[in-house]
Amino acid sequence: MSYAPETLAQLERDAKEIIARYPKPRSALLPMLHLVQSVDGHITSDGVEFCAEQLGITPAQVTGVATFYTMYKHDRVGEYHVGVCTNTLCAVMGGDQIWDELSEHVGVGHDEATEDGRISLERIECNAACDFAPVMTVNWEFFDNMTPEKAKKLVDDLRAGKEVAPTRGPNSVCTWKQASRILAGFPDGRAGEGPQAGEPTLVGLELAKQRGWEAPPADAARPEPDDPAAGSQTRGDIHK
Residues 97, 195: contact at Cβ < 8 Å? Predict the structure, then answer.
C-alpha cells in the first residue's frame, strides 16, 4: 500500500473503531469502503487491500462488494457529486430534461467529472423522495422540486465556491470525501440542522391525526396465521 504513514495510522485507528461495532469483522465491510473512499475519493487498489487486511478477507471479496453497490466509485469523483433522479416519477416530472440540459451545461456525462475536479454527475435511481419530484442530490443531500434552470444555477454556484443549502437537512453541503466519512459512521454533528421532513411528506401524518388513525402498539397481539393444512385443503377443493 502506498498510503503515507500518518494517513495509514489514522485509517487503522478509524478501522479499529468501525470493526468494534460488529460481532464479526467482515460485517464492517460497507462502512470500511466508505472510510477508504473518504481518503482516496474513490475505491482504489490500496483501499481494497487495506479493507481485506483489516477484515481478514480476500481482495476479491472486497472487490465483489465494492463493484456491486453504485455508492462506491471506481473513477475520479468531483468535490461535489451531483445526482439527477431519472427513475419513473422524477423522469415524468422532468428529470430526463434536467439531466440532458445539465449534462450539456457541465460538459460531462454519467459518472464523469469536470476537469477542474469540482463537479461529477450521475443518473441516479429512486431516492425515496417521490413526493418532491423531480429530485436531485449533491453528495447525497436533497434538492427538491428541481427544474433545468435551478439545476444549472446550483452547479454554477458550487463551481464558484458559493455555499448552497439543501432543501432538507444540514444548512450547507459538505464535500464528497466528508460525506463518505459520515457514511463510514463518523457523524459531523449536523444531522439536526435545517428543515427535516417537508410538507408533502407530512400530509399522511396530518390525515391520520384528523381521522384518529394510530399504529398498533408494538406488543399488540397479532392474529394467528391460517392453518397451512386448512389452506392446502381449500386449494385442493378448488381443483376438484
Answer: no
Known binding residue 90? Answer is yes
Does 174 belong to an annotated binding site? no
Torsion of the alpha carbons at 27, 33, 35 and 38, rounded to the nearest 10: -160
Count the neighbouring beta carbons within 10 Å of the beta carbon of residue 160.
8
The domain 80-183 having CATH identifier 3.40.30.10: the answer here is: yes
What integer is the mean pLDDT of 163-187? 95
Residue 51 in marked binding region? no
Query: Cβ contacts of residue 222 below 8 Å, gap of 6+?
Result: none
Comparing C-alpha atoms, which of 10, 18, 12 is closest to residue 184?
18
Q: pTM to 2 decimals?
A: 0.83
Under a CB-based contact definition with an 8 Å cutoff, are residues 59 and 32 in contact?
A: no
User: Where are the chain's structural domains?
Assistant: 5-66, 80-183
The answer to whether 130 is a known ligand-binding residue is yes
Q: What is the band of 227 on the pLDDT scale with cuts at 50, 70, 90?
A: low
Distance of CA 132 to the CA centre of its chain: 17
CATH architecture of the domain with residue range 5-66: Orthogonal Bundle (1.10)
Identify the three-state secondary structure at position 121: strand
Q: Identify the weakest region by mean pLDDT among 135-149, 162-176, 199-213.
A: 199-213
